[in-house]
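Researcher: Good morning. I'm working through a list of sequences from a screen, and I'd like to move beyond sequence-only analysis. For each chain I'm collecting a predicted structure so we can compare shapes side by side. This is the next one on the list. No need for commentary yet; just the structure.
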Amino acid sequence: MRSDFGYFEEDKLGKHYNVRMLKRLYPFAKTYKLFFLISIVLVILITLLELSLPYVTKIAIDRYIVPDMKSYKKAHSGEKEKLITLRKSDLIGVGLAAGVLLILVLAVFGLNFFQVMIMEYSGQMIMHDLRLTLYDHIQGQTVAFFTRNPVGRLVTRVTNDVQNMNELFTSVVVVVFKDFFLLAGIAVVLLSIDWKLALSAFTILPL
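Model: Good morning. Structure tokens for this chain:
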């Protein structure tokens, strides 16, 4: 029977990311807390820049593309040169808005790049420290331990499971923070523009 060989049972290994396990992993992440703080700051900056993109588009449309048309009714639709002269400032404004949008997009791309690099570096270092600790722990076990537990399962625990923890630190945590700040920012912007319409839109949000 398999139980005679001391195999791990799947139901005993099925509790994912419980509080006790996270507490045991915290010392590994605490060493690189500065990188996590920098990453959170970058996430906040990225969120603010992403929220500013539609606002710049709004300014371009309201002020330059579809402004008050009363001053342009004097120009006949066929008088293209006169219309261009009248809307010269609007054309300049649209160009400036396009330039600002380009700068914002490049800034978001650059900050995203640095944020991913920082988190990947932190995750790799945490994974390195964790694997060294596990390796030292396994090396200190008796021969009977390796007799009771399959080597393949031990290798899986040291490699694949540690990689999954790396994904938790580098991807899941960052995405949760970013989505939270993004939703909070969207809610603030909507309420500042039209709080009645915003509250009406919030009624369809899942609780």
